[in-house]
Specification:
Layout (H helix, E strand, L loop, with lengths): L19 H9 L3 H15 L1 H12 L7 H29 L4 H27 L7 H18 L2
Helix pairs in contact: 1-2, 2-3
């Protein structure tokens, strides 16, 4: 009679990081917390605990099973969540409609200010304006913008 060979796997269900201690606990029939404490102890004693744990993560395969059914369930949940997110995004985009008139008005005002600055610098090149100081121009520009904001309808 052939005796069934007991195999060692990393646990899919009882895991904190990669399931090594959960797999050890299942294999030896012991609480995995004991193995977790041993790895922490080995880490503080000489640092070998983390190296041993990482080697076991690489060498020991993950427990088989629940992969295809679990992925299908997970895929359904992800698709459902994606649908909810898409619906919420559409709802938010309908609520956040821009007032086209205000956008156009702001763009026109910005264009007007840029044109005024361009005309001012062009006139400085063409006409001699030694009497006009830049401090006065900036002060008048700021005052004009303030009046525009105050009296804007």
């Amino acid at each position: 009679m052939a005796e069934e060979v007991k195999k060692f796997y990393r646990s899919r269900t009882d895991r904190v990081i990669f399931g090594v201690c959960g797999g050890l606990g299942k294999y030896f029939g012991v609480d995995p917390v004991l193995f977790r404490l041993l790895f922490v102890l080995f880490f503080f004693v000489d640092g070998a605990g983390i190296l041993l744990y990482l080697i076991m993560v690489i060498v020991i395969p993950e427990e088989p099973g629940r992969s295809s059914a679990g992925n299908k369930d997970l895929e359904g949940e992800v698709n459902e969540l994606a649908g909810k997110i898409e619906g919420k995004a559409k709802e938010i985009s309908h609520e956040a409609k821009f007032d086209e008139g205000k956008v156009r008005e702001s763009r026109n005002m910005l264009g007007f200010i840029i044109v005024l600055f361009g005309l001012f610098f062009l006139s400085r090149q063409i006409l001699p304006m030694g009497w006009l100081d830049m401090d006065i121009v900036w002060a008048l520009a700021i005052i004009s913008i303030g009046f525009y904001i105050i009296f804007k309808k």
